[in-house]
Amino acid sequence: MTLLKVENLVKHFPVRINFVKALFTRERKKVHAVNGVSFEIEEGQTLGLVGESGSGKTTTGRLILKLEEPTAGRIFFAGKEITSLGAEEMRRLRREMQIIFQDPLASLNPYMRIGEAVRHPLVIHSIGENKRRQREMVIEMLERVNLRPAEEFYNRFPRQISGGQRQRVVIARALITRPKFVVADEAVAMLDVSVRSQLLKLMMDLKHEFNLTYLFITHDLATTKYICDRIAVMYLGRIVEEGSFKDIYTDPKHPYTRALISAVPEPDPKAGEKKKKLIPAGEVPNPIDPPSGCPFHPRCPYAKEVCKTAPPKLKELESGRRVACYLYS
Ligand code: SF4
């Protein structure tokens, strides 16, 4: 069953200019953050949304949770359209749709004890008969994310624990309402490599235990190995390729995906020496003034004339495999 579906999602942000400049120019520039993104996630699956900084992946996650209003497009959750739900309806739905942010320190109130931070969503959504029951639920969840002894962690403040432990608290807070869907936005990006793999393993265990569906947003393709069933690669506000994790890794089609895969470090250093790195030249273009045609053409070694005129459509090559590139038209 499809749990989440987005159709032609668009988000343009107005560029702020100063008052004097605004008097002399009629042109109002926009940041083209998301430019017609469509995908589906099956219940119990993890879709990795991968791309460099500025690709629009974080904005896509925020649009889905209605933390930003889309400029255009439609969002469906569990078969119901949620695009134009009001604040109150959305507040109720957030019990089932949660987010884990990149920086646990910034997402936790430094003056709130950890147990109270994890209990807070239970209070907001009136879950648990009374405070004692809510406390029991928090203790169980702290234990489940391996913050033991849980009673001790309950009374600590965020600054009194490590970065990895703080992210476990954020995960506990996200899962305490037993959501169906979780957006993990660069959830392990700020952690050391060893802590990162422990957290990814925990997220996988919790996914199976609670039948979670994840949208796993990351700039680091290597981390998708541990957790993703499918991968969608974003570039300058568009999905350029989507497929199963295996297809994307073993047979990347789009030149940008090939470049990303070539940059993933090899666990075997000897294999890494042989692997040719295809890092694209130059920077991601400015989303205020994106290139005409295929957004990747200024950096693409295979660009032809047609690539500069019209953006290629995302076409299905085979079941479950989509690519936006004139090499496959
Ligand atoms: Fe390169 Fe053209 Fe394909 Fe874009 S459409 S990725 S420029 S070959």
Report what the structure shows.
This protein has 329 residues and is of the alpha/beta class. It contains 13 helices and 12 strands. It has helices at residues 19-24, 57-64, 87-93, 104-107, 114-124, 131-144, 150-154, 163-175, 193-210, 221-224, 245-250, 255-262, 269-274; strands spanning 2-14, 30-42, 46-50, 72-77, 80-81, 97-100, 181-185, 213-218, 230-235, 238-244, 315-318, 321-323. Helix 5 (114-124) crosses helix 6, helix 5 (114-124) packs parallel to helix 8 and helix 6 (131-144) packs across helix 8. The protein is globular, with a radius of gyration of 21 Å. The model has no long low-confidence stretch (mean pLDDT 91). Iron/sulfur cluster is lined by residues 254-255, 294, 296-297, 300, 302-303, 307, 312, 325-327.
Structure characteristics:
single chain; 329 residues; alpha/beta; Rossmann fold; 2 domains; eight-stranded mixed β-sheet; four-stranded antiparallel β-sheet; 22% strand; globular; binds iron/sulfur cluster
How would you summarize this macromolecular structure in one to three sentences?
The protein is an alpha/beta fold and 329 residues long. Helix content is 33%, strand content 22%.
Q: Please identify which CATH superfamily of the largest domain we are dealing with.
A: P-loop containing nucleotide triphosphate hydrolases
And the CATH topology of the largest domain? Rossmann fold
**Uncertain stretches of 5 or more adjacent residues:** none
Q: Quick one: CATH class of the largest domain?
A: Alpha Beta
Structurally, the number of domains stands at: 2
Estimate the strand proportion: 15-25%
Strand count, sense and barrel status of the largest sheet are: 8 strands, mixed
Query: What is the share of helical residues?
Result: 25-40%
The helix/strand class is alpha/beta
Which descriptor suits the 3D outline?
globular
